[in-house]
Amino acid sequence: MTQHRITRRQLLTAAGAATLLSQLPMGLALGRARDGAKTPAFIDDLIGRMSLVEKAGQLTLMASASQNGAAAAANPISNTSAVSAQVAAVKAGQLTGVFNSSNVLWHERLQKAAMQSRLKIPMLFAADVIHGFTTVFPVPLGEAASFEPELARRTARAAAMEAAAVGIDWTFAPMVDIARDARWGRGVEGSGEDVLLGRRMAAARVHGFQGERGLADPEAVVACPKHFCAYGAAEGGLDYNTTDVSERVLRQTYFPPFQAGFDAGAMTTMASFNEISGIPATANHWLLDDVLRGEWDFTGVVVSDYTGDEELIAHGFARDGRDAARLAILAGVDMSMQSALYLKHLPSLVESGEVRMAVVDRSVRRVLQLKAQLGLFDDPFRRIKPSAPSRQRLPETLELAREAARKSVVLLKNEDDVLPLRTSGQRIALIGPLAQDWDSTKGPWTLFEGDDTGSDLATGMKQTLADPSLLQVVAGCGYQKPLAGGVQEAVAAARAADVVVMAIGESRDDSGEARSRTSITVPQVQQDLLDAVAATGKPVVVVLGNGRALALGKLAPKAQAVLVGWYLGSRSGLGLCDVLFGAHGPSARLPVSFPRESGQVPYYYDHKTTGRPDPEPEKLSPFKTRYMTAPNSALFPFGHGLTYGRMEYGGLDIGDGRLPADGALTVRATISNRGSRAAEEVVQLYVHDRVASITRPVQELKDFRKIRLEPGASAQVEFTLRRADLLFIGQDLKPTVEPGLFDVWVAPSAEVDGLHGTFELLG
Ligand code: NOJ
């Protein structure tokens, strides 16, 4: 990787156009100066009075000694500590904070212990608040399907409010890793495959977690865009695996959501577990210092992932723990999570001269500055109010969970308008392992949830139906294994019903950390159940539970309707029923492409054309870029999602089709709802650069707009394209843009033609 810094001034000179810089889209911007907060004088004074051990303590974060079972199970067991030992460590000034406790009394006890330490530096309480706290919202991938960043902001705000109420200052979220290989289990935590959607969701979530009133607000928690960087590029979709990504791809694809998060004000980030092209992120000076701090002016805190510094040994990059601590701190990791290597080795590394005191002081300053920004020096107990009225699972928060749930449901197909179902006069058989598994509605990374036992689809249906006795619920099989007599029971229920709803897919344990799969299909036993039920001839609606894109080539043709239900959280059942029974139409779109077969992954819509593109994907042409058994296209592309309306696209207007270098091009289209139900459409703008000095993707999303249309109504949607929207990372690894011809589409998804035109970018 080349090691150069590009300053804003250099870019201006290079591009020769001041307008270009001001137009840089967030993702490709070179980072703007943060709020420029100066270090308060008392921090330098404090650092001057700290011992080396106290300094190392401020850079040491450990798992809370008091954790519930789910939180404890979220990470491998390592360096556990007894409650009394942890309190003693805090009193001795050897701990900066703890993570993954939700117990406000414990937080109070530890903060009181910190106030008994020599320098009384407040503790920091962190947690994995990924998609809700006690109220569980849809998994982030599901919520990304809403194509509604404002919704993501609101759920993050609500989660922050609940978490802060028990003393949590810092969330290890949002996860902003672009994920293009559906085998990787952690795609569920992010916003999918697309850079633009990823950027918008990252910014929205940071705004939501941190709030609008500054980090010192008692209801703000500081955000941590993670995992920096390219964790989602793991080879083979295998978690923790090697990534080998060019600097161009890093800058074009993996960096932008982080930049968006930092531009939105995130003051922390987490170094990822993986290596990038031979250098582990946790020891990657180029990444953590040259780029993050040098180019982007990031002034916040970099924390390692859980034992990430210690894992440099297993990577074969560090000789031992001491070497690992040295490499991590020198690369720019300010805070060590869980290994305790900084506490153990930093003092002697400084004494031996291997690490300069200034390097340690710099990291300590960043940590203390963060604590100051969070208002902890003013009032260490500002978020710790055990006797305050509960902020957990307030009615409005649960209502938001229901809104988020229904807005995350994607309708993939709806033959003969089998959906929406009727709430009365229709006998329904609800079949499948997800029918009444409330535990799976939570999805992975729910460590602190409240009572969600009523969140399953069966309960939602019983509450929705006018006559719940018309509903029969049968599991039919397990997620991976048959149940004795299950198929027969399911078939009998289907025969007795007018319509079958099959709740099938993955269990919550199939996605998340270390949950990579070799195949991304619905397990065979469930497909067999579907076959048996479909053979009754009854209309079948499949409601999928899933934490990733699924290959539905075999499954989809067997159902009249297919809904993607992800894991929708505390109000999963009711949110699904809002859509199933038509109180609200489906309004979400796929944030990841659903390929035809598992073997197509990694599959993403904005791939390159190659030198031998496949002109007729439906037929097997020789010597073309396709598989022998399947075209290289998605079964349900990125951006796809149907409504209960009938949308028509027309009236494309791109003016004179000329985009001046310092101007704008307005693209307009008229969308009409020719159906008989109101519907929400996500109108998408895609662009393709025909010829460039770097090969460009077949399509790239440049903007989207969600509109609601009553039956018979039309609306004109307007997009503005500027030169900066067409930037890419050039041969010199700097953002560049080249005049020439571009294709433009206004379309309901990627990979469909929609409305097509061309325009010229003038030089
Ligand atoms: C490891 C995960 O990679 C990270 O996302 C999480 O925040 C930490 N564990 C702490 O639980």
Mean pLDDT: 94
Shape: globular
Tally of strands: 28
Strand content: 15-25%
User: Which runs of at least 5 residues are low in confidence (pLDDT < 50)?
Assistant: 1-36
Structural class: alpha/beta
Termini gap? 31 Å
Strand order of the largest sheet: 11-16-15-14-12-13
Bound molecules: 1-deoxynojirimycin
How much helix is in the residues? 25-40%
From the alpha carbons, calculate the radius of gyration and give it in angstroms: 26 Å
Number of helices: 23
Main beta sheet, described?
A: 6 strands, mixed
Written overview of the protein:
The two termini are 31 Å apart. Residues 1-36 have low confidence and may be disordered. This protein is α/β, with parallel strands linked by helices and 763 residues long. Helix 15 (321-331) crosses helix 16 and helix 20 crosses helix 23 (572-580). The radius of gyration is 26 Å and the shape is globular. It contains 23 helices and 28 strands. A six-stranded mixed beta sheet has the order 11-16-15-14-12-13, sandwiched between helices. A five-stranded parallel beta sheet has the order 4-3-2-1-10. A five-stranded mixed beta sheet has the order 20-28-27-22-23. The structure holds 1-deoxynojirimycin (NOJ). Residues 74-75, 128, 172, 226, 305-306, 513 line the site of 1-deoxynojirimycin.
